[in-house]
Amino acid sequence: MVYRIVNIFFLFALIFVFIIVANAGEHVRISLALGLAFIFSITAFLLNWLTIDGAVSAGIFGVISYGLGDWQGAVLVLTFFVSASLLSKDMETIEDKLSLKFRRDGTQVWANGFWFALWTTIGFISQNYIFVTAAAASIAVANADTWATEIGNRKRGKTVLVTNFEEVKSGTDGGVSISGTIAAMAGAAVIALLFWIMDNSEFVLPAIFVLCAGVLGSFIDSFLGAKFQGRPVYFLSFLSDSDSLIFDNNMVNWLSIGIASTIVLLLTLIF
Questions:
Q1: Domain spans of the chain, in order of start
Q2: What's phi and psi for 22, nearest 5 deg?
Q3: What is the pLDDT along the chain (271 residues), one digit of tens a residue?
Q4: CA angle, 61 as apex, 57 and 62 as ends, to 5°?
Q5: 264 vs 84, 103, 137, 208, 232, CA distance in Å?
């Protein structure tokens, strides 16, 4: 239900931007983005990577990424999506399990992409650079967390709970390890480096903010996972078909990305 509300929100935002804000050249890019996003979403659905709802959400997200974020935004998003897909793919997994692992719905799309879409849309309307940096930071967090999870869970080594440093099994919510931390730094660094190169600026500080946001967001994700994941959120029950909404991994991702990217937004505004 939540992802449908988000779909409607961003769909109306795109219509508003297209009619009121965008110029003729931007109309062409947004229209091209619509066609490319449609092709990508259909392909992802046929490859069993996305559900129908996930394909719709990914399509809207894709239009925003390229249509409003230009090619730089599209590159960051594609880097995240491709690297996440490659890292998540277990070649030894049988076909039906592989399909289930890859098949993401609309909630999962927006858990990682909501803040990028929001900052990109606001940045397009306001033409303010701070929102571009915040958008890049949101992708850095998503990439860092994905790399930390996928690589950290595969490597042997000690895993401790981020809240009290007690040793736990690899893959435990809130668990951190040396390999996972290094992977998070690498995932954030890739996005930060791309952002700096595409920004074509002598100033490296925004890229450093993006890098730090990725690593910080990964630890925030672990903390929220350890403290709250699996617990009911009663005050948000109106967003769920049940009596309460469960604080699941999607909500953890959404919050950690939002917190870290908002911090970058404020830092960029100050400095």
A1: 1-126, 128-271
A2: -70, 150
A3: 688 999 999 999 999 999 999 999 999 999 999 999 999 999 988 888 889 999 999 999 999 999 999 999 999 999 998 888 788 754 344 444 444 455 788 999 999 999 999 999 999 999 999 999 999 999 999 999 999 988 877 766 788 888 888 888 877 888 898 999 999 999 999 999 999 999 887 789 999 999 999 999 999 999 999 888 877 765 555 455 555 567 788 999 999 999 999 999 999 999 8
A4: 115
A5: 23, 31, 7, 10, 29
